[in-house]
Design a protein that fits this description.
The protein is α/β, with parallel strands linked by helices and 231 residues long. It has helices at 40-48, 70-75, 93-100, 113-118, 120-123, 135-147, 165-181, 193-199, 222-229; strands at residues 2-11, 14-24, 29-33, 55-60, 63-64, 78-81, 153-157, 185-189, 202-207, 210-216. It is 34% helix and 26% strand. α3 runs parallel beside α6 (135-147). It starts with a strand and ends with a helix.
């Protein structure tokens, strides 16, 4: 589904990602973990095309997308839920959702019922402004907006950050449902280690812009968690 080969990214003269390589097989969840400032968000932004890759290659469905613009990547089936949600506060919930349809090749102009099956609370909030929702509700809206485009690859950046436990549980169930359907691959950036390990098939730990450990989540050691992930 996605293959990242030795990418390097700089902010000015500061190197953020260093020869980073990563693969996401179709229908799997890969957790990218690491402490703050190691390059996790930079990785997601490079996949989405928000940040330019200085060198290396990003392949999606066997096509080199390293130089493709954001819109082309979105229409090819990549959806991104950024850290902080970035919903439009002055648009209604329904308007926020309809914006997600812009990434679909075949345009429709109604929110599919399947979205409300995943996020039933949103159905009763369609006329409410996005900025008036709680943090957890905004996160649900952001994920719903991404899913409405029917992506093949979903990029999630810290979906549990600042979210109340009950909503975290609902988001976890939604991601698990997506996984069970087998149609969407998920790259999950997450600092909540237990949450990530419950959902992901494999993990990669980033330090100083490089992957230092990776493998099956079932085989991750307490030593790695304590030495490289514990806050």
């Amino acid at each position: 589904m996605l293959k990242i080969e030795n990418i390097n990214i700089f902010y000015g003269e500061t190197q953020i990602l260093r020869d980073l390589s990563l693969e996401i097989p179709k229908g799997t969840i890969v957790a990218v973990m690491g402490r703050n400032g190691v390059g996790k968000t930079t990785l997601l932004k490079s996949i989405m095309g928000i940040l330019k890759v200085n060198s290396g290659k990003i392949s999606y469905n066997d096509q080199n997308i390293s130089k493709d613009p954001i819109a082309k990547r979105a229409k090819s089936g990549i959806a991104y839920v950024p850290q902080g949600r970035e919903i439009f506060p002055y648009l209604t919930v329904e308007e926020n959702l309809l914006l997600g349809l812009e990434a679909k090749v075949k345009k429709t102009y109604t929110v599919p019922d399947g979205i409300f099956e995943l996020f039933p609370a949103l159905k009763g909030m369609l006329s409410r402004k996005g900025g008036n929702l709680s943090g957890g509700q905004q996160q649900q809206l952001a994920i719903a907006r991404a899913l409405i485009s029917e992506p093949q690859l979903l990029l999630l950046d810290e979906p549990t950050e600042g979210i109340q436990p009950s909503i975290v549980f609902e988001i976890e169930n939604t991601i698990r449902f997506i996984k069970e359907q087998g149609n969407i691959s998920v790259l999950l950036v997450e600092q909540y280690v237990d949450f990530a390990l419950r959902l992901a098939d494999t993990y990669s730990v980033i330090e100083k812009g490089s992957v230092v450990f990776s493998g099956s989540t079932k085989g991750i050691s307490k030593e790695i968690i304590n030495n490289h992930l514990a806050v």
